[in-house]
Structure formats: structure tokens, C-alpha cells
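Quick one, C-alpha cells below:
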């Protein structure tokens, strides 16, 4: 059987599994579809045959992630995102690096890793990704402000996480001490990287998106608009990541935000634009469906059992470290705004920080010469599965306990 036939067969198997799961949970609003997909994928890894599809860093980053990100940015409410921008920036530029340091230091004791590897693991596992967050918030009614804040943080922190990951990996490969990054020159270099790589990628994407936004408003051809969005989504990512060595993730974020930015609401879209957005929603759904099943099926049951203690400890610490950054930073930001984020919303922000697609892609990019002696891949896949299955399935309960929902006026 040729590789192409094997791949197509694997995709059909995954979509068949997804169809069965969708039919099973379609009338069960309190069960997260994404969580069940991962659980079924994990079950397939235990009892079923090999699906025939392999996750790689390049497939996730260059083929699947741009679709997920672009679809998310097209549907997010830009005015609401701008309104909550200061908090999102603080959580991304302060909260994420702080969380990496905290988990990295704690990990030297909890996991028994040397500091460099512990920090590298923290940089890999801590970014929350849009695939998981957007999927879950489509399943459960959550107040718009809270949903946009979590989605916005997820869309932006991937780019910063990749800069941190790349800096740590380059330092380790060069044989330098990671503590050098904590010096004045090291911090200056990191901030410069964030500004150039992250800011440059975001700016490039905004330029792509704005140009496309002007173009599509002059078009009434649905297929032309769809082709424009595909070129912009993947073109901005490829140009930034591959040719200019900027953040491809943030380039796609910028492109999507600029293309989806309407004067007030998405109600101003033309009929062809609405059709194209529906197409992207379908594409995003299909891509995340495949990813969730593959993440579950790619988890090695034997390795999962062998390192169960490390995986469970990592899963708990990831939530704990997120809490240690979310509560103080949001409370501090609340003092500077007339619309503070209520404590019950902060609980959802902590629990809603899921860690799946981007962490999996990053750990697959770690060279064997560095990560081969440590169970990094097993731990990341394990935390991803626990994150989606446990946190995802308990999300309705957490929402009930906090009293949040679509009708909440203070969220």
C-alpha cells in the first residue's frame, strides 16, 4: 500500500471515529466533544490497530496550526479583544515568562531534572493553545468578555512561548548556562527577540491582513474571497516563519485579526464573507478533530504507565503554576481598571488554560541529543491528554460552581 493510500485511509479512520463520537455526544451538552475525542484516541492506542498517521512538528506547525489560529482570529470580537488588551498583554509578556521560571525551578526538585531541561520542559508545556480553548468554549456557554480574554491570551502566548523555547534550546545547544539568560544582557536579548521576532511577525501579519481586508471588500466572488483568506493565512505564516525567521504564529494572528476587524460587529460582513467564515469554521473543526484523536492515539500506554507519577505531578504543577501567575497578575491589573475581572472569572481562567497542540509540536522539535535522556515527550503527551480529558470534562462543573454562563453580566 502506497504512503498516500495509507495516509488517506488513516484520515478516514480518524474522521470515522470523530463521527461516532459526535453522534454519541450531540445531545449531551455537558460533555466536551474534544475531551471525548482524546479519550477515544487514547483508547485506540491501548486496544486498537495503528491509525496510520504520524504527528510531526512540521505537520502541526506548517499545515494544521495556521488553520486553527486563523479560524479563531476571524471569529473573535476585535473590539472586545482591544478592550481587554492590557490584561492579555500582561498575561502574555509577564505571566508566561514568570510561569516558565516558576515551573522550571520547581521542576528541578519535583522531576529531578537539571535546571536547563526543567526550564525547557516548562517552556514547552505552559503555553495554552487556541485549539483546545476555542473548542471547549464552543461547547459551553461562557460570557463573552471572559471567553475573548482566554482566547486572546491563547492566540498571543504561543508566539512568546516559541521565542522562550527557541532561546532556551539555543542556549543548551551552545553549551551555555541557562542562568546567563537571567543576566541584564540576557534579559535584554530576550526582550529584543520578543520585540523583533514576535512584534515583527505580528506586524507583518497585520499588513497582510489589512491588504486582504481591503481587497475582499471589493469582491463579490465567494471563491475568490476564500482563496484570498487561504493565501493570507498560510502565506503570512510561511513568509514570517521560514523566510524572515519571525513568529509565524503571531503573523497568522495579526493577519486574521486585521482581516476580521469590522467597524463594530461581524454583522457587517457581506454574504460571501459569511460563507467563507463558515468554511473556515468547518476547516477548523476538522483540523482540531484530527489533532485531538491523534494526540490521544500517539500517547504510548506503556510509557504513560511507566512515568505515571511524573505525568500526574506535572499536570498538577502546571495548573498550580498557572494559578500562581493568574491570580496576582489579574488582581494587580484590576486596580488599574474601572472594570475589574471578578474572582470567579479568574477561576475559569486558571482551569481553562489547556495545554495540547502547541506543547506537542514543541516537544516533537526537541533534538534527541538533548531530550533523549528525559521522558519529555511522554510527559507532554500525558499532560495534554489529562488537560483535555480531566479539565475538559470537569469544565461544566467548574462553570456551575462559579455561577458563570452566557447570561453573566459581570464576566
Amino acid at each position: 500500500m502506497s504512503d498516500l493510500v495509507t495516509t488517506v485511509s488513516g484520515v478516514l479512520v480518524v474522521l470515522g471515529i470523530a463521527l461516532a463520537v459526535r453522534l454519541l455526544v450531540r445531545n449531551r451538552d455537558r460533555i466536551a466533544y474534544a475531551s471525548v475525542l482524546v479519550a477515544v484516541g487514547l483508547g485506540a492506542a491501548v486496544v486498537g490497530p495503528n491509525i496510520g498517521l504520524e504527528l510531526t512538528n512540521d505537520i502541526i506547525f506548517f499545515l494544521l496550526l495556521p488553520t486553527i489560529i486563523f479560524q479563531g482570529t476571524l471569529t473573535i470580537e476585535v473590539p472586545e479583544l482591544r478592550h481587554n488588551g492590557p490584561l492579555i498583554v500582561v498575561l502574555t509578556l509577564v505571566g508566561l515568562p514568570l510561569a516558565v521560571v516558576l515551573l522550571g525551578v520547581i521542576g528541578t526538585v519535583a522531576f529531578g531534572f537539571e535546571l536547563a531541561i526543567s526550564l525547557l520542559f516548562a517552556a514547552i508545556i505552559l503555553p495554552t493553545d487556541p485549539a483546545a480553548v476555542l473548542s471547549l468554549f464552543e461547547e459551553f456557554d461562557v460570557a463573552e468578555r471572559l471567553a475573548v480574554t482566554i482566547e486572546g491570551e491563547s492566540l498571543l502566548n504561543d508566539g512568546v512561548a516559541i521565542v522562550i523555547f527557541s532561546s532556551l534550546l539555543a542556549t543548551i545547544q551552545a553549551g551555555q548556562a541557562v542562568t546567563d539568560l537571567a543576566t541584564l544582557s540576557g534579559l535584554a536579548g530576550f526582550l529584543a527577540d520578543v520585540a523583533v521576532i514576535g512584534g515583527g511577525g505580528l506586524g507583518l501579519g497585520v499588513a497582510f491582513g489589512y491588504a486582504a481586508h481591503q481587497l475582499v471588500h471589493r469582491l463579490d466572488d465567494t471563491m475568490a474571497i476564500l482563496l484570498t483568506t487561504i493565501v493570507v493565512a498560510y502565506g503570512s505564516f510561511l513568509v514570517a516563519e521560514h523566510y524572515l525567521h519571525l513568529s509565524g504564529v503571531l503573523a497568522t494572528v495579526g493577519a486574521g485579526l486585521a482581516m476580521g476587524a469590522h467597524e463594530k460587529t461581524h454583522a457587517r460582513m457581506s454574504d460571501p464573507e459569511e460563507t467563507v467564515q463558515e468554511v473556515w469554521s468547518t476547516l477548523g473543526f476538522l483540523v482540531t478533530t484530527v489533532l485531538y484523536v491523534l494526540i490521544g492515539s500517539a500517547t504510548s500506554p506503556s510509557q504513560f504507565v511507566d512515568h505515571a507519577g511524573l505525568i500526574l505531578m506535572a499536570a498538577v504543577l502546571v495548573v498550580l503554576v498557572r494559578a500562581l501567575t493568574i491570580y496576582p497578575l489579574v488582581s494587580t491589573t484590576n486596580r488599574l481598571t474601572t472594570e475589574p475581572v471578578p474572582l470567579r472569572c479568574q477561576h475559569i481562567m486558571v482551569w481553562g488554560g489547556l495545554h495540547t497542540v502547541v506543547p506537542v509540536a514543541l516537544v516533537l522539535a526537541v533534538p534527541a541529543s538533548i531530550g533523549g535522556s528525559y521522558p519529555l515527550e511522554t510527559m507532554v503527551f500525558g499532560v495534554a491528554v489529562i488537560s483535555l480529558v480531566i479539565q475538559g470534562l470537569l469544565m461544566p462543573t467548574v462553570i456551575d460552581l462559579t455561577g458563570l454562563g452566557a447570561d453573566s453580566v459581570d464576566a
